[in-house]
Sequence to fold (155 residues):
Amino acid sequence: MKCPFCANEDTRVLDSRQVEEGTAVRRRRECDRCSRRFTTYEKYEDAPFLVVKKDGSREPFLRAKMSAGMLRACNKRPISTEQIEQAAFEIEKSLRNQHEREVRSFEVGEAVLDRLFHLDEVAYIRFASVYREFKDVQRFMEELDDLRQRRASHP
Fold:
């Protein structure tokens, strides 16, 4: 593995661990030349999994894109990056189990909302305001009322 810092091809593995429920391997490496450490991941290659957008176009499902949206919603909230990454992994796993090759963007958004509902209600509202494209305060208040009702029925 080539060092990302000095491009040296001689690196050594310091530690290997299974991650993502055994579907990937995380390796801590150290460069023999510059002694800097870095992390690599080894993962099997899945069949293409596509997201069907509102306009009918398709693009590859990218967990990183989904995680980025979740991170923005969780900004300055008491939620760790590890919690967000784990939630994103579980959402992707669930979607892949439910759908063979394609998933509608609507289903991805709803899965993220459902997970954020259980993690943090402020993050949930932040994500919902962008995802559901609130046009005015009235729509925002309706979503808050829905959140209150849902919280009352799911203590």
User: Anything to note?
Assistant: DSSP finds five helices and six strands in the chain. Residues 27 and 141 are 47 Å apart (CA to CA). The helical segments are 63-73, 81-98, 105-119, 121-131, 137-153.
